[in-house]
Specification:
Helix content is 38%, strand content 22%. It is an alpha/beta fold. The chain has two domains: 3-123 and 281-297, Rossmann fold, CATH 3.40.50; 125-279 and 312-330, Dihydrodipicolinate Reductase, domain 2 (2-Layer Sandwich).
């Protein structure tokens, strides 16, 4: 039986998620929430759904049993809290919460609702090609360092240049280059290497105090991971994990489309598989399994939750290092 899915947020990523959810055969979209009814109706019509809500309480009592949240980062906390209080499973887009204080409050609420599962939608770490990277890293004799790059011109940057303050480039919405794009390579680094011993962030500020791009350095015992990301330009650099003579080259750390291993500096071995048509399919299948079989997947679920909380802490530490404060930090 398919999970009754509700969605919050009506942008392109939500459409991609619903398409993946339907393709998996394990979800059926039954309710749409939007602050604006006309926007919600337009999205709902795409999937032949009649139930559109502008009131969150009515949405959460509509009969859904899992919600996908892709609203601005700053409102995730209240929306997730309300869902858990209604015993509804939650899949929330990155970055899940503004700071560790919010995350701690959500974990406490989850303790009171043990049947509810919370997932952060870090789709790239669930994809087959990322699993290939994990397996190869585990076999590499020595890790000497890594450089991850994810720099992509935002569709909203023209709006910013015109003098406006779009949500994805605003501290008011707990957003900026780090929490919107940097979260992808940071997730990858922590999944591959664990929590760093130290972290530093050299941010390039926008006029509103948010970060438009930056370079983060995660320090481990005997190597560093350098992470470059930004929303105001495009980079075509690959990402690399360095061994001794061997090197693992990743075409795109967020999309994980191409993975090549050089065993001696010159001989290339193509490791990547042909990716699925929708990059979210792997995660929706994984999440459905964990919701359907909670006892059998409890260890794997706790690992995902711990990873998500660690990423949240590192993002916060990096912001503190760069002096970037969100309004949510002061509440």
């Amino acid at each position: 039986m398919a999970y009754k899915l509700g969605i919050i947020g009506t942008n392109w990523i939500t459409k991609q998620f619903v398409q993946a959810a339907h393709e998996s055969g394990q979800y059926a979209l039954t309710a749409v929430y939007s602050r604006h009814e006309d926007t919600g109706q337009q999205f709902a019509q795409t999937f032949n759904v009649d139930a559109v809500y502008t009131d969150l309480e009515s949405f959460y009592t509509s009969g859904i049993n899992v919600v996908y949240i892709a609203s601005p980062n700053s409102v995730h906390f209240e929306q997730v809290k309300a869902a858990i209080s209604h015993d509804i499973h939650v899949i929330v887009e990155k970055s899940a919460f503004s700071n560790p204080t919010e995350y701690a409050a959500i974990l406490e609420l989850l303790h009171d609702h043990p049947a509810v599962r919370l997932f952060e939608a870090a789709r790239h770490i669930q994809q087959a090609n990322f699993k290939i990277i994990e397996q190869k890293v585990a076999k590499m004799e020595k890790i000497s360092g890594a450089t991850f790059v994810y720099e992509k011109y935002s569709s909203r940057f023209d709006d910013y240049l015109a003098g406006n303050e779009p949500n994805v480039l605003s501290r008011r919405f707990s957003a900026g280059a780090l929490t919107d794009l940097g979260v992808y390579p940071i997730y990858a680094a922590i999944k591959l290497f664990g929590a760093p011993k130290q972290s530093h962030y050299f941010a390039t500020p926008l006029r509103n105090g948010a970060d438009g791009r930056g370079i983060a350095i995660l320090r481990y015992n005997d190597f560093d991971v350098t992470i470059e990301f930004g929303k105001g330009s495009n980079s075509h650099l690959t990402s690399e994990i360095l061994g001794r003579r061997d090197t693992l080259v990743i075409g795109d750390i967020a999309e994980v489309l191409n993975v090549t291993y050089y065993d001696d500096g010159s001989t290339a071995h193509q490791l990547s598989q042909e990716p699925l048509s929708n990059p979210m399919i792997a995660e929706v299948v994984k999440f459905a399994d964990m919701m359907t079989n909670p006892n059998e997947t409890v260890e794997a679920y706790q690992e995902l939750l711990t990873l998500s909380r660690t990423v949240n802490q590192v993002l916060f530490d990096l912001r503190q290092d760069a002096g970037i404060v969100f309004p949510a930090d002061e509440q």
